[in-house]
Each structure stands twice: as structure tokens, then as C-alpha cells.
Amino acid sequence: MTLLQVRDLAVEFSTAEGLVRAVKGVDFDVERGRTLGIVGESGSGKSVTSLAVMGLHRGAEVTGSVDFDGTELIGAPDETVRRLRGRRMAMIFQDALTALHPYFTIGDQIAEAHREHFGSSRRTAWARAVEVLGDVGIPEPARRAGEYPHQFSGGMRQRAMIALALSCEPELIIADEPTTALDVTVQAQVLDLLMKLKEERGLGIIMITHDLGVIARVADDVLVMYGGSAVEQADADALFTAPRHPYTRGLLDSLPRLDAGGAQGEEAALRAIPGSPPSLLSPPAGCAFHPRCPLYAAAPQAACTDARPPLVQVAPSGHRSACVHPEVASPC
Amino acid sequence: MLTDSVLTVRELQMTFPGGREGLRRRPGVKAVDGLSFDVRAGETLGLVGESGCGKSTTGRMLVRLLDPTGGRVEFQGQDITRLGQRELRPLRSRLQIIFQDPFASLNPRQTVQQIIAAPLRAQGVATAEIRREVRDLVRLVGLAPEHLERYPYQFSGGQAQRIGIARALATRPALVVADEPVSALDVSIQAQIVGLLERLQRELGVAYLFIAHDLAVVKHISHRVAVMYLGRIVEIGDKAQVYGDPAHPYTKALLSAVPLPDPAAERARERIVLLGDPPSPANPPSGCTFHPRCPQAQQICRTEAPLLQIAGPGRREVACHFPQNAAH
Q1: Contact residues on chain A for B215, CB-CB shorter than 8 A
Q2: Residues of B in contact with A261 (CB under 8 A)
Q3: Shortest Cα distance, chain B CAs vs residue A213, angstroms
Q4: Best of A47, A194, A276 to mutate (most B CBs within 10 Å, chain B)
Q5: Within 10 Å of residue A45's Cβ, how many Cβ atoms?
Q6: What burial class does residue B183 get, using C-beta atoms within 10 Å of its C-beta: 0-12 exposed, 13-18 middle, 19+ buried?
Q7: Are A240 and B243 an interchain contact pair (Cβ–Cβ within 8 Å)?
Q8: Cβ–Cβ contacts within 10 Å for residue A283, how many?
């Protein structure tokens, strides 16, 4: 059975300047033992989506359906969500220093989560904390469990937060930019750790990032978000080798690459996407990408501005794209 | 020294004083420990490294926002290491800096017109000429004249960075130090700003010292690249050499750690995973400071710091007892 099934998820905030529709109806599934990558730029709705799944949206209007292993979370009593959160689904944040409490030792924070969800004794919970710290590759876990977050380096803190997430043996982990604040050599270690945990424990992972390299490294399936909507959805190989949505193509074309041309001579010019990501307060009519879209610029269609194009299947194996332009919209 | 060099840096050092511990003072932190390199007229030298390697400290010393504790900086043949603020002022028109956070580096209470005019005013340019220059500059960086009366908060991050670039270029500098100028921007906007910097270099002949942690961006924009580790340059050379055939084990590991946007290549790739974190400059390892993480470390690496020297053909230099490029 699918671990997490999200359907038509929408999140709205009212702000002083007006209604912000941060997520406008997103669908996705996460299977056990697979990683779903959600990629997008700032304001695309990728982080809000993950917070809504975890029931961590403050003051937002959330509609749609989030089904976690048969339990509907939208509209469920707080107690239901609280019992799952941190226990069967856990979250890893970008900044471990703000996610961890500065006044408590790492071991205390992990033990507290274990006691809360399992009612275990102090001694058992502490032993569990030391065990998971060892699992994530922290040397001398028994000693380090007694230290405070500020005594850990950036990479070790990120491992400690992964240990905290793992302590109650979750089935789903949502990682929101977990390596963005880390150096590349340390990022490589943390990504390897997450992939190993996925394989060994059959975890479902949602990896939220702006970095297409990280997506290519860890994701099995990918959802590309723009202006609060999913614009393309495919398995990772199809997305990178045959992107269909003009935004995904634009994003890949605007990336400087370590692995292309250049090393022996001139670099090909980057093909930047003109303009800026849309404002969520006054989004463009129809397809949110149309003001920056090369296909629209070359051949404007009424359908681009009339309504938000739905995600439709464009190739076998479930490759879907939300674009009305015929070369994108027709299945191959 | 190279004849076409616009900037010459020799044995540059920055030691920040240590904090007090009771009556004693802790030893200082060597953030930059003996850097030597040149930037040639009209070229881009990329300076890469991980957090804490001293790359931003270096950039700040070059424009004298920090005073070096040792070594020498020559700009267009003139030693600027010990010049006072008044003597520096005429040089500032030719030596500029762009910062990472476009909003933090623009005065929120000034209009775009006032921001871009400031360096021209400081150089005593006539008011009428300033107006004309500023209009040309906003067009040059891809903004419109109607933006001139607006304030920084009315712009997106990418547009704000364009304003910072216009200000840096207002006095037609020979060298711009760009400290992580695109790392706060979204990918699609980052490409616009990189393209803009490249076009401006072609049109104006300005040289850049491009400081960044993103190896792919540095590869794209640079002619030559210097890799820093813990306050020192471990490898410097033409981009094709450093990226195509890295000689220092740290450069190799760094390049192999960057995830490529290509799932098939990622699966096939051999990765050199370094153990541990970069060490603290407050307490650097003995000998070669990379030795505790180096897969090739030998006895000599623990005791003797390797000097930066020519490795193989070309002018690539590497600080390693056992360089690993193809020529060795």
C-alpha cells in the first residue's frame, strides 16, 4: 500500500496584503523505499507543501487530502496528527542549530522524543539515543550524547537531527533542504547516509531542494513546482534526459555544469530564464510560467492565460507535464 | 610579477586576535596564511573553497575593508597594503566590490539614483554628468530608467544585485572583487547575473576576483581558478587544468563531491568521500593542514607543510608532496 498519498493539496494564508495561495492543488505519492524529490525556486510552494503534510502549518487554510498509510490527516483531530508526527513520519530541517534546542543535550532531546512516543524509561530512552547517534555515524556516541548542539560541527549537527528523526523508527522522512547549509564534502556524507537509511530500512523520503544535482543524486521520482503548482512529474531519469515542461527545460539550461564542455575550452553561454518568479499575491493569470515562457513568447495561446493547465500524461511510465503547447501536451 | 597583472598579492596574512581567557589571551586565528597570486587585466580568477577557508577574508583585505596583518597587496603596480583611507580614496574608483546579500549592501533609505551616484559623487564628478552616467549604467545592467526613483525593497533579489553591480561599475574599475555575488539567488536568476557579469567584462574589460563556494559557477565564469583550504591556496591554474586534471587530492575530492544534474552519471560515478569536517583555523593540523582528511597522506605530510610549486606543464601550481595530475 502506498505510504503517503496526497491529493489536491492546497494551502492559503491571509496576509495584510491579501490572500496568498501558496500551494494550489498538488498530487503525489510516496512509496516505501523510494525518494520523491520536490524541486523548485523560492516561493514555489515546496516547503509549504511539506509543512502542510506534517500538520505544521500555522494559521493557514489547508484543503485536499493527505492519506498516511490509510489515515486521513487533513481535518483529523490534532491528537491523531501529533501521534504520527515524530513517530511514523519525521522531518529534517535545513538549519539544525535552530531546529535543535540550545539548552538541552543532544541525547536528552532524542530521549525525550522516544519517551513521548513509546513511554519508555529514562534509561531505555537514553540508550536508544546513543544507539541512533552511532547509527548516523557520530563517533563516540555515548560521550557526544551528553553534549549540547553548539558543541557539534555543522555536519555533525545535521547528523544529530537525522538521528532525532530516526529515533522512533519512522516510515516517512521529509527532508527540507537538509544539506543546503553544508559544505559539498559534508553534503556528500549526509546524502550518502540518507540513501543508506532508505535502502536498509525501506524508508519513504521526500527530499525538498532547489539543487537539481542533489535531486539527481538521491531522487527516484521528481515533482517540479512553480508558483504553487506542480508543473512536471516524472521518474528522475526521464526528467533529466527528456524534460517536457518549458520551465524544467529552462531550469536545466540555466545551470552551469561541471560535467559539460568547457574543461578544455570555452563555456557555452548559460541560457537564463528571463524575468523573475511570480508574486504569490498577484500571480499571472492562467499558467504561472507564461510571462517567462519561450513557447508562449514564440506562439502565444489563449489557453496559456485562460486557466491553469492541468498536469497531463505526456509519456508512458507516468511522465506528466502541465503545459498546453502541443509539442509538450501530446504524448510521445 | 607578471607584467599584465592588475593585482599582485604576496604572502598575504590575516590573523584575528584570540579572545581573552581570564588574564591570558588565546592564540590568534590565522584565517589567511600566506596567500600569493596575481589577477591579470581583464580576466576572471575564481577563488573557491568551503566555509571558513578564508576566501571572503581575502576579498575584504584586497579592497582594504580589513587590514592585513602581513604580506603585500599591489594594485596596478602600487603597494596599497598600508595606505590610509584618504590615500585609498582615489584608488577606490578603480577597485570595487560586489557583496553576496544585495539588500544588506544597499542603503534602504536611498533611491537607486542616489545609490549608483554615490561613488561618482565621491570622486567629484559634476552633477549633470552623474545624471547621464547613472542613466547609462542602469541600462547597461538591464534595468530601466523608471527604476531610478525606486527604493531597494521594491526590487527582487536579482534586480537588487543588478543595482549593486551598476554601483560597482560606475567609476569604470579595473578590478571588481565579487564575493559570492550569485549564491543568494534562485537558479534561473543566477544565470542572468552570471551572463551579465560576463557581458560587462567583454564590454568594459574589467577583471574579476570571483569568490564562491559553487564549483560549477566558478568553472563557468573563470579563466583561472585558485582552490583554498584553511587559509592557503592548495592549487591554482588555468580552469581547464584545475577542473580537467586536478593535481591536489583536495581539489579532486571537492570536484567529486558536487552532485551532477544527471542521474545516470551520478549512479556511475566514483566518489572520493572525505571523512570528517574541515578543521577549525583556530586549531590547524600540523604539516599539510589537509593531511587528516587526505586519502594519500604519508609520514612527511604530517610534519612538513608543502609549498605551492609548479606541477607539470603550464603554469599550474600545487601545494602537495604527492601531486596527482596526469603529468606525474
Answers
A1: 184, 258
A2: none
A3: 4
A4: A276
A5: 25
A6: middle
A7: no
A8: 17
Q: Which residue has the cell 569536517?
A: B277
Among the listed residues B193, B227, B225, the one whose alpha carbon sits nearest the alpha carbon of residue B209: B225
The nearest alpha carbon in chain B to A154 belongs to: B277
Confirm if B180 and B100 have CB atoms less than 8 A apart: yes
| ipTM of predicted assembly, 2 dp | 0.88
The domains found in chain B, sorted by start residue, are 5-222 (3.40.50.300), 246-328 (no CATH)
Has residue A260 been placed in a domain?
A: no
Mutate to test the interface with B, among A153, A270, A289 (most CBs of B within 10 A): A270
| pTM of the predicted model as reported, rounded to 2 decimal places | 0.91
* C-alpha cell belonging to residue B318: 600545487
Q: Does A102 touch chain B (CB under 8 A)?
A: no
Q: Which amino acid is residue A311, in one-letter code?
A: L
Task: Give the pLDDT confidence of A272-329 residue by residue, as tens digits.
Answer: 999 888 888 889 999 999 999 999 999 999 999 999 999 999 988 889 999 998 777 6
Mutating which of A210, A258, A273 best tests the B interface, going by the most B Cβ atoms within 10 A? A258
Question: B252: nearest CA in chain A?
Answer: A185
Q: Which residues pair with A321 in a beta bridge?
A: A232, A312
Residue A29: pLDDT band with limits 50, 70, 90: very high
Return the sign of the alpha-carbon dihedral for residues A157, A162, A166, A170. positive
Q: What are phi and psi of A99, to 5 degrees?
A: -80, -30
Tell me the sheet residues that pair with B210: B46, B178
Clarify whether residues A318 and A196 are in a common domain. no
Do residues A225 and A231 make contact, with C-beta atoms less than 8 angstroms apart? yes
Check: CB of residue B321 under 8 Å from CB of residue B288.
Answer: yes
User: Residue A106's domain is classified under what CATH number?
Assistant: 3.40.50.300
List, as ranges, residues 57-96 from B with C-beta within 8 Å of A. none
- Beta strand A35-39 with A221-226 is parallel
Distance CA A241, CA A229 (A): 22
Asked whether residue B23 carries a pLDDT value surpassing 90, the answer given is no
Q: Is the pLDDT of residue B1 over 50?
A: no
Cβ atoms B241, B311 nearer than 8 A: no
In terms of residues, how long is chain B? 328
Q: How far apart are the first and last CA of chain B?
A: 27
Q: In chain A, how many domains are there? A: 2
